[in-house]
Amino acid sequence: MGRSPRRQSSRDVSPSRVEPEHETAVDSLASAHPSPNLGSVNRDEIRVSAAQSIPCRRLPSEPNETMNGQYLGPSSAQSFLDQALRRSGEAPSLLIQSPSNVEIDTSTLSFGDAKVCQADIAQFAWPDQGIAIQLLDRYFEFASPTYRYMHEPTMHRWLDRIYDKDDVSVATQACVLLIFASAAAFTIDSGGDTVDASSQGWQLSETYYQKAETLLSEETGPPRLESVQARFAAVQYLLSSSRPNKGLFTFGTMVQLMQAVGLHRKAVEKAGSSIPDPITVQMHRRLFWCAFTLDKYLSIIMGRMPLLHIDNTNQALPMVVNDEDLTSEGVRQHISKYGRDCLLHATVAHIEISITLARASQEQCSLPSITERCHVEAAMRWGVDIHDWHSRLPPILSGAVHSSSLIPCFRRQHSILTLARLHAIMFVTRPLLLRDLSTDLRGTEAQQYRDQLRTCIRTARDVVDLINSSSRNRVLFPAFWFSQYIAFSAISIIHIYIIQLSRHRIPADLFSTASQESDMMTVESLYQLAKVGQGHLAEAGLKSAPVWRYGPILESLSAQTGKYLSLLRNSSTHELRASDVPMSRTIQLPNNSNAHQIANHMVQTESVAPDHVTGPQPGTDALWMNGHETLWNDLMAENLDNNYLTMDFWPQFDNLPMVLYSLYVYAPNKVAPVLFTVLYGISAVGHIWHRYRAWRMIGLQPMCAVFYTAGYALREYGAFDYLYSTTNLNVYIISQPYRPLLELSNYHVLGRILYYVPYCAPFPPNRIMSLFGALVAVVEALGGLGVAFASNPSSSLSLKELGSKLTKASLAVQLAVIVVCIAFAGLFFINCKREGIRSRKINIPLIILSASMFLILIRCIYRLVEHLGNVGLNIGDLEAMRELTPILRYEWFFYVFESTTMLLNSVIWNVWHPGRYLPRLHNVQLSPDGSEVEVEEDADTRPLLTKAGSILTFGILFRHKKTQRDSSYSLDSRHSCISQT
């Protein structure tokens, strides 16, 4: 692990553990990211990355997002920071428009790239074999630390064949030349350290590249693995030589060739076919996932749509094995007590963090701006994932071993992964800089927001510290485009943080004066640190393409923060610390004129770009804003007239109600559950403490009221914790009231009414609960099977369709049962009228029963209409959520047709309690002459268990055999007159 007397090669390192086969990327991440698993019910193979396939439909208006014919991307850092600083001509544009006649002779595919001199390849000759071997070793040890998509022993064999004058394909020769090109961008100084190449070294590097490009243009025949490898190597070289636009177009061609070769699909062994070469299989995996990783970063940095999506592949992650141990015969095992570190650990780790970053970026794009809690929760959730990823790294990559103790290859890998981790943390937390969410959040949520905001600022400082130390050690090279972008992001965050403090858009006391880090986190300290980082970044970017010249953006931001700090120093003698700024008001100055002066300078100061900046400034970092245009303009131009705001014109109903991974589809209302909890609680108290003591008649109603009260109390909990997790899912399930109890309560009341006048009953009263109880059981059985089939991810498509049909059938049967109940009540009323019975004790309970059944009918129709629409819920796919029936997407349907109707049902039984009208005992009957008589009941001698079984089966089983039918009526010795109605 320590330095060796000689320059160690990657061939000296072997794996610590080798496994015969690896799971797919989605499977390997499932344990680390369990949250979205429930979100998809259609493809369990990609559940973990449902967010990856979410297309963002919140498209903002794009009034001025092109420059010299190039699309900037509405969310690119340059375009949005430009919008933030523009104020109706009072502030300059950050984007420097080139004259119309500039670079008109530049190729369209290279427009905006750094200019390079054309090399003379007519007299091209291969370098000496010794130099070629050195270039090959330098490439694998330093130039490509995590993108290890070539097999080093194979490259050496190809090199030997080339120098032995064997027949070698043009793609193979191009692969070797492009390795030379990337390695020649660096050189070894007298101290043995790797440094940036001289101008002659870069010219030689360009010669290798142009020769390889010429060879690839002459390639014929079907595409092969080396065809894709060569073009990916070309993309890497173009990026390191500051030609990102040409690199993007080359990358697009490479993706098409990669799909043609089938690298995005796992190789399947077929009967009778030859066994795949292990080297080829692993190179397929490595190349695809390296391309996937690069695609994610390019899409973010350049503001373009990603070309590769995780839901379109089943390719496995590469095996963690060193190249020298991977042979055409298989994997060579090394017997070692402790094992040795493996170079592929860094490659797989880089792939995993890129997948996390891709999912986080898609989720940021889908989160509605009005749901502040969503952004805090997302930052916390992704922060935990990033921490878990970091904890799984081996010691040499996690920082447990100081990088100075590592060999060059491991040192470079550690540096790349450290920057990737810090960038991911900044990426998921920086949306919280948009405005002060602590005013909208309370208690624990506000503290969580402040913690995440502190993490963002600390991480930005750590990045700038790292970049500054790297510059002191001469390792911030122009070829390190990835490091330059991350430095730009961190410095931008520091400037925006200071400007936000000046405008009172974020909490001012994030960093306590009593903490050990208080001196490092003062505004003055952060500003000076950012200025030093800007200088290093500008020096490294002198040769960069115009698209990657971050200087103008940072100079404009620095001008704003510098003016603010200068004015504040002149008007106040106290040390400026973030925690010194009062939270409840803007920064206090000795007089109002100074405060007004700061505000004017913040929006009127012109920032002049450096003279060396020419050419277009296309957008970078497309996902910085994610639809928060209005907030950003408000951030940088307070009191700006609305005519100049960049507005979002998407329909409110098409986006804002839905929240990704919400168990309710939307972000639940926080007030309505409290209201209904109180109202149902009052109704429950009324049912429990009624004065009629008719528990056997109405006992199910107080039970239902209690259940509804508890259900809405849990829904209030879910209104704050509605994103998918095991705990939240359990709370969501428990909060659903057991609605069949309401219907059973009404059927029981109907039976009691029929018992009161049995000779007018259209159906035997003692069979009412048996009939309707059985029908309700059928309804619930159909509904349970339907939900089980439709929601099970492992169900086939036909089984899911069957589940949907069963659910609809259960609702239709329930509707029919309600209609039958109402029909029984209607027939009973007609029979009573025919018999001349006009008692208030019958009419009022019948009216209330009919009203109650009508309310339940409304709810049933609401549920039926809901299921007739699209209810294929996938809480991890925002596009699928948009296609849901509006009844599911909008919460007010639930509160109107479910909550309100069932509350009214509970209230009317409270006000017109059946105990006011019907006798408490069911054997008290109304005679034709209007008197009440008590019918002597047969003694029930059945065992207790038999009685319980009869009740649980609604009287269908274990029936009580009576000597006389309850529906008969005769005034014999078995009847006694109670009262005269």
From TrEMBL:
This is RTA1 domain protein. One of its GO terms (cellular component) is membrane. GO terms for biological process: DNA-templated transcription; positive regulation of transcription by RNA polymerase II. The keyword Endoplasmic reticulum does not apply. The keyword Transmembrane applies. The chain crosses the membrane at residues 475-498, 671-689, 695-714, 771-791, 811-830, 842-865, 892-912. It is a multi-pass membrane protein. Residues 1-41 are annotated as: Disordered. Pfam families: Fungal_trans, RTA1. It is found in: Membrane; Nucleus. Residues 247-324 form the Xylanolytic transcriptional activator regulatory domain. GO terms for molecular function: sequence-specific DNA binding; zinc ion binding. Keywords: DNA-binding, Membrane, Nucleus, Transcription, Transcription regulation, Transmembrane, Transmembrane helix.
